[in-house]
Amino acid sequence: MTATTDESVFAAENVFGKGELNTAFAQYFIGDSYLNNLVDDPECAVGVHNVTFSPGCRNNWHIHHATSGGGQVLICTAGSGWYQAEGEEPVSLEPGSVVFIRAGVKHWHGAKADSWFSHIALAVPGENTSNEWLEPVDDVAYAAL
C-alpha cells in the first residue's frame, strides 16, 4: 500500500477495520484516531487493538512504565506512518514494519501527513504497568519529517 489520503482506498487495505472514533484518548492525540478492540476475552493478558490514524494524526509523547516486563509492540498493517523514540531519528512505518518499545522509553507514533495509517498495538504484560501521557509532538518538528 502506498501513502494515501483517500479514505476509501485505505479502508480496502485496512483488514482489521477502522473501529470507532477514539474519544476516550482524544486529548492525547493531534487529529482523529480510531480504535478497534480485536480481543474481547477477559482471559487474554495482552491488550490487542487496531489503531487507525487519519492523515497527520499522531499521539503525544508518552511512556509505558513497568517495574518489570511491559512496553508495547506495534505491527503496522496499512498506510504509512512514523515512530520516534526520544533522542533518536524518526522511523518510517509501512505495512509489515514491527516496532518493540521497551518500558520506560519516551516515544510517539502516528500517520504521515499525506496518509491514513493503521497499526495493531499490543500491550506487553508486565508488573505495575501504566502509561504516562506527555506533551504533544511539536508541529514544526512533525512538519519537517
Primary descriptors:
about 140 residues, mainly beta, Jelly Rolls, six-stranded antiparallel beta sheet, three-stranded antiparallel beta sheet, 2 helices, 15 strands, about 45% strand, globular
How many structurally independent domains?
1
* CATH topology value: Jelly Rolls
What ranges have pLDDT less than 50 throughout 5 or more consecutive residues?
Answer: none
Can you identify the CATH class? Mainly Beta
SSE sequence, one letter per element: HEEEEEEEEEEEEEEEH
The percent range for strand residues is 35-45%
The level of helicity is under 10%
- How many strand units? 15
Largest sheet: 6 strands, antiparallel
Q: What distance lies between the first and last C-alpha atoms, to the nearest angstrom?
A: 20 Å
Number of helices: 2
The strand order across the widest sheet is 1-3-4-13-8-11
CATH architectural type: Sandwich
Radius of gyration: 14 Å
Q: CATH H level: which superfamily?
A: Jelly Rolls
Structural class per helix/strand content?
A: mainly beta
Q: Describe the global form.
A: globular
Mean pLDDT: 95
